[in-house]
Each structure stands twice: as structure tokens, then as C-alpha cells.
User: Which sequence fits this backbone?
């Protein structure tokens, strides 16, 4: 399909927003629909996706795998995310995750002049510095980032707080207020709403690695170098700051891109598409073929 | 670009390390097992004395064959003003049976249940010299922008003589317990120790979670 005649839609990726909203209803309070199958009301517990894989100093193998048992739904979720990302790209993050979804949807309600632009920060460098401490501090017994600063704990409780005293209690403590501040500053008030995802989410960080690892075999959003004229129209609106202009060609960093599809619609020349592609990194310039999948 | 990335990486590592190592002393989390033989807390909760309010999260799993109703009490001296909140779905769709929580009693606990309780605590004013509970309106004395209360002239005089020695001692110290009692037998099914430490000795403590 040729995209040359498509003008920028007023509400890019609106189908994605509907899917995100549905995921939020299914996951978040007051309904907490999916959690109730296991007797939970939020991610903490059976569904915790952030703790089970972290090895703590002094833990035996048994204790380590007990963590997997305790959060078995979280483990299924995370392995499912990484596996689908390997083949299809980070659809969990771009379409389904109610945590990233809340922050991105929230940021759309904030007037433009209040938004903070974090795009100057080289996101992968920050993200993987953070991730190394996420694993390292626990392994060395220095402390932990798992529960104390957790996006998956904070956002469901924002939705639950008006109804539930237990959810409100989460914010009546210093750590809770800091978490709220991080979600507001790096989420709701961030341009694009995804600075938290991009910098401080361990799931997103691991997912980025899976995205990069599978880039050669799986389907991804990528730029057709021969069609790109380097106008840069796609660069600014990318919520993951994943697009770089080098040598008058746009390039998408697989460590950061979640296939939100914004750039696809922003490019008037139809140079960006999703599909099984030979990424320019592995193919000689100009030879990259991508078939729309 | 390279250099900016390296600086960012180093900064991220440092910031994350500080965040990982530092604990905010006004809240802590403990995990426990509830059972007929008294239950077991995996580790005590450490809280840092001197905050206005504290929050403690206890998550517990119920070991078979225990079932029953459980009264939850925060025990310790001087007594604290506290409020226990039970975490359950806002709209209960009835997909899974959950215990009911009313007036600090958990009704209908069954084997395999996982419970999450939030305990919000606030200390009553305490005489910093003798540790007795006092009331606002009792003998008082301002010091460094804070008002201290005393049981009598003796303690007030001691405070005036050495305020530095007593000024941090008007908040809870030592060991408290979040205790769970079976309402029928009165037997304890779980005790979670909550330990209030002074600022000076709380940093080295474990209890990270
Ligand atoms: S980066 Fe984390 S919070 Fe953001 S969408 Fe992905 S999993 Fe969700
Ligand atoms: S990919 Fe499209 S929008 Fe981006 S720089 Fe190239 S031509 Fe412009
Ligand atoms: S590169 Fe394109 S698809 Fe990927 S996150 Fe950025 S705008 Fe979305
Ligand atoms: Zn006294």
C-alpha cells in the first residue's frame, strides 16, 4: 500500500488508544477484572512482573524459584511479553500495558505548554544503567529497587485510591509520594507520556533487549532507506525518542521503539512500515526490502 | 553523542544506587505465614522513629488446615493510634471468595488465602524523658519549633537541663507486634514484629524489600 497520499490523521493511532483503554479497564481498579481470577486486586502478589526474576544475595535456588511460584501470573506475563516481542515487536508496551497506557493517555490531557520534553536524554544509556543497578544492587545485597519504586504498584493504586482505603494508604508515606511524583513528572507531564517507560521501567528495559535481539528475524517498524529523504517529520512525535537522523536518513533504534505506529502515519513519503524487514543495520544500504506484513 | 551517553549511564547508575540503598523510614513491608502453630514472619519490619506517621504493609498466606476468623491488633508500649485497611478489589466480581474485614476482624479466612493489610500508625504524644503517654494540654514546652509534653515538673526540669539528650525520644521506640488472633480459641496465628529504631541506628538495618 502506498502511503504517499495519506495525510496526517488528527488522532494518530486511534485504534491503539481504544485497545489501551480496554486494557486499562480490564487490569486497573475499580474493575481489576483479570486480577480477580486469582483473588488479587492489583499487580502486587500473584501478578507482580518485577520481582520474581531478581536474584537476591544469599537466596538459595529454592528460594529463587519460590519467587516464580509466588508470582506465577507475573512470570507468565513477562515471558509472554518477551517472547511475543522477539517475533512481533513490543506490542505489550505500545498497545496493552495499562501502566504505560495510563501515562500516555494521561499526558494527552495535559496542555502542551506544561509538558516536559525529556528527548534530550539518551534513553538507552539511562535505562540500562538503571537496569544494571536493578539487578546488581539486589545481587550484592546493597538494597532493592523492585518494590520501593514501582510503576506497577503506583498506577493501579491511583485508580483505586478514591474507592479503597488500602489503596489510598499507599500514598500516605514518603515512598508512595515519590512514586506518584515520578509517574506525574515522567509520565503524565512528559511529552509523549513515555519517559517513565523509556527510563525507569525494568520490564520495558528487558523488553527492549528482546526487541533488539529479535530484530533480524521478527517483524518490526523500520525505515526504508531508499524512500526516506531525511525530512525529519517522524522524529519529533516518537514517544520513545527512538528515531535518529543520520546521513539524511531516519533510523529506528530497536532498543527503544515500541510499535506505536506514529512515525508510520507521520511520514508523508511512506518510508516507514511494519513488517518482516531486513533492517538497514544488517543489509547494505538500498538493498533493504520490506514487505508490508 | 558517545560522551553524553557515557555520562548519562554513569549518572543513572549513581542515582539508581542511591535510590536502591536508601530506605524511607516511615514505611516497611513484611511477609508472613498464618498457621495454627503461631505462624511465622519472614523478617521483622523496621521503622525509623521520629516521623509523624508510619505505614506498614503485611502480606500473609494462610497455611492449611487453618481456617477461622482473626482479630488483628497492634501491640506495644506506648500504644499507637492505628488504622488497619484490608486490600481487596473495589468491585468484587465474586470470581474468588475473599475474607471480609470489619472492625479489625478478618472473617472467613480459609487455607491458601493471601491477605494484604495496610496499617497506618500515628504516635500519641509521649513524655520524652520517662516515655509515658501524655495528652496534648498536659504540661508542655516548646523546643526547636516543636512542642513537647510532660507528665510532671520533674521530667520537664530534666528536659530543660539536657534538651539534646531527650529531644528525639518523644516518638515510638522498640518492638511492637502486629498480632493476629483466632477469635474462637484466642490463640495467636501470626505475629509480625515492628521495630522502631532511632535515626542513628536505622540505616544499617536490613529489612529491604
Ligand atoms: S515500559 Fe513498562 S510501563 Fe511502559 S509500557 Fe512497557 S511494561 Fe508498561
Ligand atoms: S522516515 Fe519519512 S518522515 Fe522520517 S525523515 Fe524519512 S521521509 Fe521524513
Ligand atoms: S519509532 Fe515509530 S513506531 Fe517506534 S516508538 Fe517511535 S514513533 Fe512509535
Ligand atoms: Zn515523665
Assistant:
Amino acid at each position: 500500500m502506498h502511503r504517499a497520499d495519506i495525510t496526517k490523521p488528527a488522532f494518530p493511532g486511534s485504534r491503539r488508544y481504544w485497545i489501551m483503554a480496554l486494557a486499562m479497564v480490564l487490569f486497573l481498579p475499580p474493575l481489576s477484572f483479570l486480577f480477580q481470577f486469582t483473588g488479587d486486586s492489583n499487580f502486587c502478589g500473584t501478578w507482580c512482573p518485577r520481582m520474581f526474576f531478581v536474584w537476591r544475595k544469599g537466596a538459595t535456588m529454592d528460594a529463587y524459584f519460590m519467587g516464580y511460584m509466588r508470582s506465577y501470573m507475573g512470570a507468565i506475563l513477562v515471558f509472554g511479553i518477551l517472547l511475543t516481542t522477539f517475533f512481533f515487536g513490543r506490542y505489550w508496551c505500545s498497545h496493552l500495558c495499562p501502566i504505560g497506557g495510563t501515562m500516555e493517555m494521561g499526558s494527552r490531557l495535559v496542555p502542551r505548554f506544561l509538558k516536559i520534553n525529556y528527548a534530550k536524554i539518551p534513553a538507552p544509556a539511562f535505562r540500562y544503567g538503571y537496569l544494571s543497578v536493578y539487578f546488581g544492587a539486589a545481587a550484592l545485597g546493597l538494597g532493592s529497587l523492585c518494590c520501593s519504586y514501582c510503576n506497577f504498584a503506583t498506577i493501579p493504586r491511583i485508580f483505586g485510591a478514591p474507592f479503597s482505603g488500602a489503596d489510598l494508604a499507599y500514598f500516605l508515606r514518603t515512598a508512595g509520594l515519590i512514586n506518584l511524583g515520578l509517574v506525574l513528572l515522567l509520565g503524565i507531564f512528559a511529552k509523549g507520556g513515555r519517559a517513565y517507560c523509556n527510563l525507569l521501567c525494568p520490564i520495558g528495559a528487558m523488553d527492549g533487549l528482546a526487541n533488539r535481539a529479535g530484530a533480524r528475524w521478527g517483524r518490526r517498524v523500520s525505515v526504508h532507506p531508499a524512500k526516506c529523504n531525511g525530512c525529519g517529520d517522524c522524529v519529533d512525535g516518537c514517544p520513545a525518542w527512538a528515531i535518529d537522523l543520520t546521513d539524511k536518513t531516519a533510523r529506528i533504534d530497536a532498543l527503544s521503539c515500541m510499535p506505536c505506529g506514529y512515525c508510520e502515519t507521520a511520514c508523508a513519503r511512506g518510508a516507514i512500515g511494519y513488517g518482516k524487514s531486513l533492517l538497514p543495520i544488517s543489509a547494505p544500504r538500498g538493498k533493504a526490502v520490506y514487505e508490508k506484513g | 553523542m558517545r560522551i553524553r551517553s557515557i555520562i548519562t549511564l554513569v549518572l543513572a547508575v549513581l542515582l539508581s544506587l542511591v535510590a536502591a540503598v536508601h530506605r524511607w523510614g516511615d514505611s516497611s513491608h513484611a511477609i508472613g505465614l498464618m498457621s495454627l502453630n503461631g505462624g511465622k514472619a519472614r523478617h521483622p519490619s523496621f521503622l525509623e522513629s521520629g516521623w509523624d506517621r508510619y505505614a506498614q504493609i503485611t502480606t500473609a498466606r494462610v497455611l492449611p488446615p487453618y481456617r477461622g476468623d482473626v482479630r488483628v491488633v497492634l501491640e506495644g508500649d506506648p500504644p499507637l493510634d492505628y488504622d488497619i485497611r484490608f486490600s481487596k478489589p473495589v468491585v468484587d466480581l465474586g470470581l474468588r471468595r475473599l475474607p471480609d474485614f470489619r472492625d479489625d476482624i478478618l472473617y472467613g479466612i480459609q487455607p491458601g488465602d493471601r491477605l494484604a493489610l495496610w496499617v497506618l500508625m500515628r504516635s500519641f504524644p509521649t513524655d520524652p524523658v520517662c516515655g509515658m503517654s501524655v495528652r496534648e494540654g498536659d504540661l508542655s514546652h516548646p523546643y526547636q519549633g516543636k512542642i513537647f509534653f510532660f507528665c510532671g515538673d520533674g521530667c520537664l526540669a530534666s528536659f530543660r537541663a539536657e534538651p539534646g539528650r531527650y529531644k528525639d525520644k518523644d516518638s515510638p521506640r522498640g518492638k511492637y507486634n502486629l498480632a493476629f488472633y483466632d477469635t474462637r480459641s484466642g490463640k495467636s496465628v501470626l505475629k509480625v514484629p515492628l521495630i522502631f529504631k532511632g535515626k542513628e541506628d536505622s540505616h544499617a538495618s536490613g529489612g529491604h524489600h
About this structure: Chain A has two domains: 3-10+213-292, 14-211. Residues 49 and 76 of chain A are 9 Å apart (CA to CA). Residues 14-211 of chain A form one domain.
